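Let's sit down with a protein and look at its sequence and fold side by side. Once you have written the record down, we can walk along the chain together.
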Amino acid sequence: LLSIICLLTNNACISDEADLDDGTMDTDSDSDPETGNTSDVHVCICSDDIDLRPAVAAMRSVLASTSHPSRIMFHYITSPELARPVHDIFRVQMSGARIEVHHNVKLQERIASNVVFRQSSGARVSLASAFNFAPFYLREFLASSGSTTSGVERLIYMDADVLVLGDIVELASMEMGSFPCAAVQYCDQRLSHYINFTELRRIGMADGISPEAC
């Protein structure tokens, strides 16, 4: 449904390396004195998958396709138990890339408490993971973990299983007018496949939303 989301945020976070207990870890930092937060492009991925090969391929495709690799800052949001091994693997597999690994168990539990898997949907059970909904909480994940996103107005979200063939920096400067977010339309699945419209109607939030919409 949403393969790439650009979200406007206003985070107040600290920079530099932080301990695992603080919820964020830097794998590497850019030593280019001309690269600052105002020109960085912040790319977020959310996953609790123990197989990191898709995520590594996705991040490598971003760096290979951009003419400004030093401006790319990745934010990988995962579970507390995976944060340390993910951090260590990225240090080896993504040497030189700028990556922060984030976790927030309280926020993760809050998201999970609001997700109910509907057997009749026919969807994969894995789609009920809190990290499938974490993209809607990017600002909270990053702000709570002391990220380097202070003053950043835009975040780019991408799934862990995509390959980027264009320059992602273009999304960072794309004119969005007054809209708070933008997404790629994906019509292989419809909203009814993921959303329980019976429940949506019960809480009075179904008006103007078509179950057959992309």
The first strand starts at residue 2 and ends at 8. The longest helix spans residues 80-93.
